[in-house]
Each structure stands twice: as C-alpha cells, then as structure tokens.
Amino acid sequence: MSDITPEPEMTDLGLIPSSEAKPEAVGTLSVRYVDGAPVLVVTAGTVMPATITVVDAAGIPVAAYTAGPPPAVAQIIITPRAPDPGYF
C-alpha cells in the first residue's frame, strides 16, 4: 500500500521593496544540508530577500540566486505489509 503526500500549500511570494520591510519581520537565513544538498532555512521572520548574492572568502560576488516557488515534488510513502500467501 502506498500513500501520496499532498504538496504543501504555497503562499503568495508578494514582493515588497526592502525599504518597506519592517526590521522585526526580516527573517534570519541559515544553511543546512539535507542528503548532501544545501537548503536555506528562514527563521524568526516572514520576509527574506528576493535575490541572494553569494561571495567568496574575499567578499567578491561569485553567484546570485533569485527566490521563486519550489519545484513540485511528489513524495511516496511505501508501507510494508504482511506477505500474501496467494502471491508468488
């Protein structure tokens, strides 16, 4: 038996100018790794930058990432069951 987990609901990625963001609403970004892939985590706020600049150790920009909705990913959960004696 398998269950398909529904995709989480997305909220509107409404853009506001950074000058209008209230300091207490600005989230803190951190990086964690899930199965070896980096994931940005926003905590303590609901506002994050639309574009994130990546710099090297010398502070020189080397990349930029733009916010957008995550790709659609279906998760399938497989639940083991007792063997069926009529199935070979």
How is this structure best summarized?
This protein has 88 residues and is mainly β. It has strands at 2-5, 28-34, 37-43, 51-55, 61-66, 75-78. The protein has a domain at 25-81.
> How far do the termini sit from each other?
17 Å
Given helix and strand content, the structural type is: mainly beta
Q: Sketch the major β-sheet.
A: 2 strands, antiparallel
Helix-strand pattern: EEEEEE
Provide mean pLDDT, rounded. 79
Number of helical segments with 4 or more residues: 0
Low-pLDDT runs: none
Shape call? elongated
User: Beta fraction of the residues?
Assistant: 35-45%
**DSSP summary, beta strand count:** 6
Rg measurement, Å: 20 Å
How would you explain this protein's 3D organization?
With 88 residues, the chain is mainly beta. It has a domain of 57 residues. Helix content is 0%, strand content 38%. It contains no helices and six strands. The strands form three sheets. Strands 1-6 form a two-stranded antiparallel sheet. Strands 2-3 form a two-stranded antiparallel sheet. The chain has a two-stranded antiparallel ribbon with strand order 4-5. β4 and β5 form a beta hairpin. It is elongated. 0% of the residues are buried. The model has no long low-confidence stretch (mean pLDDT 79).
Could you outline the blueprint of secondary structure elements for this entry?
Layout (H helix, E strand, L loop, with lengths): L1 E4 L22 E7 L2 E7 L7 E5 L5 E6 L8 E4 L10
Q: What labels would you give this structure?
A:
6 strands; 0% helix; single chain; two-stranded antiparallel sheet; 88 residues; mainly beta; elongated
